[in-house]
Amino acid sequence: MRKMSKILSLCLMCLSFVCAGSVFAGDTIVIKGSTTVLPVAQVASEAYMKMHPGVNISLSGGGSGNGVKALIDGSTNIATASRFIKPDEVKLAQEKGVYPIPHRIAIDAIVPIVHTENPVTELTTEQLSLIYQGKIENWKEVGGQDLKIIVVSRDTSSGTYEVWEEKILHKAKVTPKAQLQASNGAVFQAVSKNRYAVGYIGLGYLNKSVRGLKVDGIEATAATALSSEYPVARPLFMFTNGWPTGTVSDFINFVVSKEGQDLVKKEGYVPLF
Questions:
Q1: Domain 109-226: homologous superfamily in CATH
Q2: What fold does the segment set 21-107+233-266 form as a domain?
Q3: What is the Cα–Cα distance from 93 to 99, expressed in whole angstroms?
Q4: What is the pTM of this model?
Q5: Rounded mean pLDDT of 227-239?
Q6: What is the maximum alpha-carbon separation in the chain?
Q7: Distance between CA atoms of 146 and 37, rounded to whole angstroms?
Q8: I need a surface site. Which of 88, 112, 116, 207 has the fewest CB within 10 A?
Q9: Is 57 helix (H, G, I), strand (E, B) or coil?
């Protein structure tokens, strides 16, 4: 039993820690993918390049799906994702000789948000599901004012959308009336300027310009996300093609180190430890 426990512990550690490697001057790391992971990747890249002036890190968003596609077609060293890789993506990768390896780098919560003038402070998962399906169309139906609900959602290439689809919509379709946005920042801007709107963003994007709602009576915090008590919590990942080596390995080790996890916390996300 003790032996099995040790094996399980080692397997779980593999999601966060990777093989050490040498850092080479003049190396370039390309990172593409999730806009949710983008703030963490940005601050980690800046800190790492300051420590290693000879290393250049190129960083872009575009969504988790686009990051995984870039890993499969060989145009990125690291794909960032706010959800786990899908079976069909794994199949396509293997057909092209690519073997995606996940590295868990943080925990996040997806927070429903409304305008600061909206009096609603919490919704149930059932209410959110019905709102996003277009079956609840007025705020008065969920304890708010007699105002039409404007649904703001992420596009389908987003890992945040896919987690929302799984945990809130349970694979039901989003109303065709929804305004689709390409990033967390775009959702934030749309909701902050429209007192009729509801949207959802990663915890790290939340600030006082919008109101984050409780879900099923539970507030999204570091503690509730880490314990999975909050119903829309999820891990964040960096994927590599096989076990990383050299500078890529060293960078990911930095992200999951004490210093890197302090940056995760500073950006409003939940560190691994």
A1: Periplasmic binding protein-like II (3.40.190.10)
A2: D-Maltodextrin-Binding Protein; domain 2 (3.40.190)
A3: 6
A4: 0.85
A5: 96
A6: 61
A7: 36
A8: 88
A9: strand
